[in-house]
Amino acid sequence: MLSPDLFFLLPWFLFVVMLLLVALGVPVAFCLILSSMAVMVLDPRVSTWVIFQRMYNGMNSFVLLAVPLFLLAGNLMNNAKITERLILLARHLIGHFKGALAHVNVLVSMLFAGVSGSSTADSAGIGVVLIPGMLRQGYPKAFSVAVTAASSVMGIIIPPSINMIVWGALTDTSIAALFLAGFVPGALIAVFQIGLNFVFVRKFNVPTYPRSSWRELLTSGWDGILAAGIPVIIIGGLVGGFVSPTEAAVLAVVYALILGVFVYRDLTPSLIGKSALNTVRLSSLSLFSLVAASLFGYLIAFYRVPQLLLGGVAIENPIVMLLWMAATMLVVGTFMDALPAMAILAPLFMPLVRAAEIHPVHFGLIAVMTLGLGLITPPYGLCLLICAKIGDISIPKALGVTMAYFGIMVVLVVLIILFPAIVMAVPRIVAPHFL
Question: Model pTM?
Fold first, then answer.
């Protein structure tokens, strides 16, 4: 137990212990819990009952129930072979261009993002189909893995987005507004990545598909329209005020079941059970990290760390401050999953954002996007790890090409910071009452 004269050291001790445990390879959720408990042992002002209370409060949220439900909807759609149908649609749309399969990869990720809400589901579901297909057509391994991993980042930008739901719950920001704000940045990611594809594929000897007929396009388009029903239901219900995010997630699950069982007829009872099991695994990992981070976030508030930052950070220039925050989140995202990182950084940054009069939806998109880029940057880099495993290539060999895609997305983050209208235009036009 520390002397009262040394209590001012505890906030620094909290972060040092957490970073040390991360460096030792301890799972992030346990790093957050153990560092919090270490501080509580030293500080008699904090009751040990806070551990249980704050961890319970971290998951006691009706909004967070949407996370496993959206994951379940995405798993059901994936097992209903929606990925193959979206690939066929994308191939009919842009398959006649040079480097067709690379462009199809990006377009399918954009379409699938509107179904799953998860980048890891995107990279796994699309990667197992497209990476082997690209390799068979002569695309280099490093390029095939890089474009699949990078395009999967759209899974957390284009609604529905699990990360946006969590950010909205943590910061009391309108989830409907965040969903609407993600459309333009998500589409720009696809445009930037397809543009970079053209730069790479010029030197590849790869085939293109013949231009599709109108009949082929209309046939595959019908499947694409049915799959697009999920984001339409979600956004339409939220904007119209008919449902909450959690209720929208329930509707997404029901729609996915109807589509998979009665329309596509690919969902069997065993596949539904498999979807439910995968949902439990993924959501338990994500929500446990969030629960642990809620305890850590409580101590951040208790030791008035945001106030300490307010005293040392100039807010006269909001753009400079946003650039500094984005750089911080890019670094943090390379070491841990976005969800616990959000729970740690949200209570640190939101007081600064409010003081600088930055719109919370604008900052929310910046936070979701910059932390999401950690999915393709080691040592965390979960999407890159998944795709590299599928492509049977080491991370260092795939990293060079991946960094080119990472670079253009960083440029987009800077553009979003400089031009808030990229994010705010759609919410202001469609649903200004949410702002």
Answer: 0.88
